[in-house]
Amino acid sequence: MSTVSAPSFVDPSQALAHLPILTGQSAVDFGCGAGYFSFEFAKRVGPEGHVTSLDILPHALEAVASRAKHLGLNNLETCRVNLEKEGGSRLLTESMDWVVIKDMLFQNEDKKIILTEAFRVLRPGGHAFIMEWKPEHQAVGPKFELRIAPEELKKVIEEAGLSVVEEVPVGSFHYSFLVKK
After folding, report:
1. Element (H or E) spanning 164, and its range?
2. pTM exceeds 0.90 for this model
3. DSSP assignment string, 129-147
4. 106-158 confidence digits (pLDDT tens)
5. How far apart are CA 2 and CA 15, in angstroms?
6. Which CA distances in Å does 30 have to 3, 53, 78, 121?
């Protein structure tokens, strides 16, 4: 008798367990939203590391800053930015070991400008964790028309100068890539 597992959402701690994150590294979370991946990165890089959570929505950043304080994550800062503009993160070139782009690209017309910004801020050999909604009709998530297929995303990633290393398991509704500069 076979068992069918229930659909599941991504657990940030399980997803990041597959990534080569080191204590003391720096990470930036593009479009951090509720900050679930920011918090998990902050835990993994430890007090010697640093996480910058970026979003355009002030209320999201306030919630992330408040929750980080509550969790005792003193290595996390928030900043309001517009990632749809060239240089939009306002971070220094080659200043980050990690870039997180979770459920953000489907919302933006110009995906390449965001991925080009990721390339710019990553140090040589740095990594990105990129996660998007599967391009399937589902009861949850954005409209089907907004979703980006994995092969299409790989193409845009490569056009931005980055390389897909592997796919990372992230639950029933998403797909993700470990990417390297």
Report:
1. strand 163-167
2. yes
3. EEEEE-SS--SSSS-GGG-
4. 888 788 999 999 999 999 999 999 999 999 888 888 898 899 999 999 999 99
5. 26
6. 37, 7, 11, 11
177 in Cβ contact with 130 (< 8 Å): yes
CB-CB contact of 22 with 45 (8 Å): yes
Q: Can you tell me which residue has the tokens 């076979």?
A: 2
Residue indicated by tokens 């991925």:
115
Task: Give residue for tokens 């306002």.
Answer: 90
Beta bridge partners of 132: 175
The pair phi, psi for residue 64, each rounded to 5°, is -65, -45
- Kindly write down the DSSP assignment for every residue of 22-64, as one continuous string: -TT-EEEEET-TT-HHHHHHHHHHTTTSEEEEEES-HHHHHHH
pLDDT (tens digit per residue) in 52-108? 999 999 999 999 999 999 999 999 999 999 999 999 999 999 999 999 999 998 888
How many angstroms separate the CA atoms of 44 and 103, rounded?
21
Token representation of residue 95: 């200043």
User: What is the identity of the amino acid at 92?
Assistant: L
Q: Which residues contact 111 (CB under 8 A, 6 or more apart)?
A: 105, 148, 153, 156
